[in-house]
Design a protein that fits this description.
Helix content is about 25%, strand content about 30%. It contains 15 helices and 33 strands. Strand 9 and strand 10 form a beta hairpin.
């Protein structure tokens, strides 16, 4: 049995979900305007996109909450990102809400990420309000897109709202619909004492708990937790416990987002707000943790641990900057729960960090944030994925580092760095991550989409039509096949109309091998890669050609070879400098010339036997940019 009280009936928590560039941030701007949350002179485009990076790229990277008032109802809105790499930000927002506005572009219609975020909202059992945006565009086709939305949601045509977030038409109707359709926060019976005619009081039995859905590091006030209060209330000066990290802190300040910090006396159950913890260590305030009034309370179900999909090495350009990079990554990881990193060493680049990301855009954003916000000068290695390597040894720790061994499977190592790949003789099988890939494209592009996907070892699952012109294709693909340039190829082959979304479906065994690069017959671990056997020859040929252009010449020939075990699969030869040792001769017998050339040849042979190729940073980076 559930009970609602007057304080709760006055609150609505909701978020806006949509595909990239369908107008989420613009709709949030108009809602802030219509509700008078900010004066007109304070408004600007993409108001909730606070990072310079977001404003420049025109995309939302971080979720951003704001509180508004409409018809005496408190509306807590969370603006979410649209790109598939930031889906974890979306899932955290959904967990803090009771409803979601599903925004669809009236000209483009349903796209791949529209489906992905909708399925996530349905998993959280949220009330969905369908809205068609950009109806003022000449290319808008509300009739066609309405049919797509009705087919997707099973709703009636009159349930779909038509708006233009750019000029503000229809936005008031959306706010009214939020109040009418989205339920207020609910309570379990028995948690609250109710005085006759009074609003909700402090709970007697269960104490206060709040879920942290985001956290940022304030240089002056320490860690600030963005919370959804689930029971009780929090106020300034209160001693609270972080149940996950077993920390006790004093609440320095509480408040709501307007959209900047607005201090309050307290924040109560059902509300979205912030708590300034004052914690100085970035690792103490974790996303998904519970803030509670007592350490004896049961933690709230947090978020499942996000698993990075793409791995790359981050190295400082100057070795002295290693400590600065470590501190910068720690601060960034507080605000970005999907970022994982651990120290590693590279023969060519020195000390750095092996970092895990959700995708290439996420990697690009992290790199740019480190360079801009933390003044780091970085070198980033080629992205790779995590592999599971099953070993036939009774003591795996003697073959690979103990930190790489999987906790629940002691004979399996988790490897993302090719340098850690063990000898083939101790490997039973290698498994690689696969993803379920959804692509939305025009019906005439189906053939080219199938072709580029199957070249990446993709397995076709099914095809369905959203309407007469729009197709939805389902594939299962190895993640390694799509992390580099697949999206670019998809856009090229569909004239820009294709969109994609993917989610992990686990690991599968494959014919995967470690390809080494040999310079003068010596393996260079910094350049080794893990590839599928069918793609090894092509990848090896490309790397050898790149190295031939970038390695400086020596006095002797340098063979550049790609090898799998003892088998050479590709080769290029870097020719030697030709020093003219006969230039001082001005005539005489030809034997004098031959004697000098023979002496030179002998010297080169000796140098080659003793020589080593030093892999420069320039040569290493040239290979990474292939």
């Amino acid at each position: 049995m559930q009970l609602r009280c007057s304080g709760f009936m006055d609150i609505r928590n909701f978020c806006i979900i949509a595909h990239i560039d369908h107008g989420k941030s613009t709709l949030a701007d108009r809602m802030i305007e219509q509700t008078g949350t900010l004066q007109k002179r304070q408004m600007k485009e993409q108001l909730l996109d606070t990072m310079d990076l977001e404003r420049e790229r025109g995309i939302t990277i971080k979720l951003q909450p704001v509180r508004m008032q409409h018809k005496d109802i408190e509306l807590n809105l969370i603006d979410t990102p649209g790109h598939t790499d930031f889906r974890y930000e979306v899932s955290r927002s959904l967990a803090a809400c009771e409803g979601a506005i599903l925004l669809v572009d009236a000209s483009q219609g349903i796209q791949a990420q529209t489906l992905a975020v909708l399925y996530m909202a349905m998993e959280h059992d949220l009330t969905i309000i369908p809205v068609l945006n950009k109806i003022d565009l000449p290319a808008a086709d509300p009739e066609r897109v309405s049919v797509e939305v009705m087919k997707l949601l099973g709703c009636k045509k009159e349930d779909i709202l038509l708006i233009s977030a750019k000029d503000g038409s229809g936005v008031v109707e959306v706010l009214d619909e939020v109040i009418d359709k989205i339920p207020p926060p609910s309570l379990e019976l028995g948690t609250w004492n109710l005085d006759k005619g009074a609003k909700c009081q402090v709970p007697s039995a269960k104490g206060s708990r709040a879920l942290i859905f985001d956290a940022v590091m304030d240089p002056y006030r320490g860690a600030v937790a963005y919370v959804r209060v689930v029971s009780g209330l929090f106020e300034k000066g209160q001693k609270v416990h972080l149940l996950g990290t077993k920390m006790q802190v004093e609440v320095m300040d509480v408040g709501h987002f307007a959209p900047s910090y607005a201090s309050d006396k307290k924040i109560t159950e059902g509300e979205i707000g912030y708590i300034v913890t004052g914690a100085k260590d970035v690792t103490h305030v974790r996303t998904g943790d519970t803030i509670a009034s007592s350490q004896d309370l049961q933690p709230l179900p947090g978020y499942k641990e996000v698993q990075p999909m793409v791995f790359a090495g981050l190295y400082p350009s100057q070795t002295d900057d290693y400590q600065q990079l470590r501190e910068s990554l720690e601060k960034l990881a507080l605000n970005d729960a999907a970022l994982k990193f651990e120290p590693e060493r590279n023969a060519a680049l020195g000390n750095g960090f092996r970092s895990g990301f959700l995708g290439l855009l996420h990697m690009d954003i992290v790199q740019e944030r480190l360079e801009r916000e933390h003044d780091c000068d970085l070198i980033i290695t080629a992205p790779s994925v995590m592999y599971e390597v099953k070993l036939n040894s009774k003591s795996p720790a003697s073959i690979v580092r103990a930190s790489l061994i999987k906790a629940d499977e002691p004979d399996v190592a988790m490897i993302s760095n090719p340098a850690d790949f063990p000898d083939p003789t101790v490997i039973l099988e290698v498994r690689e991550p696969w993803v379920k890939l959804e692509i939305v494209c025009r019906k005439e592009d189906v053939g080219s989409v199938m072709e580029i996907t199957q070249k990446r070892r993709g397995v076709y699952s099914s095809l369905e039509y959203l309407d007469a012109e729009l197709a939805l294709l389902h594939f299962e693909v190895p993640l390694a096949g799509i992390v580099l340039d697949f999206f670019d190829q998809l856009k090229s082959s569909t004239a820009g109309y294709g969109s994609m979304s993917y989610e992990p479906i686990g690991y599968r065994a494959g014919d995967l091998v470690k390809m080494q690069i040999l310079l003068l017959g010596e393996p260079s671990e910094a350049l080794s890669t893990i590839v599928h056997k069918s793609e090894a020859q092509q990848a090896g040929s490309v790397i050898c050609k790149m190295l031939k252009k970038s390695i400086p010449k020596a006095q002797y020939q340098i063979p550049i070879q790609a090898a799998i075990g003892a088998k050479i699969i590709a080769r290029e030869t870097l020719s030697a400098f030709r020093k003219d040792v006969t230039e001082k001769l001005y005539g005489g017998d030809v034997s004098r010339k031959q004697k000098l050339l023979k002496k030179q040849k002998k010297g080169k042979k000796r140098m080659k036997a003793m020589g080593k190729v030093t892999l420069t940073q320039e040569a290493f980076l040239a290979v990474l940019k292939r």
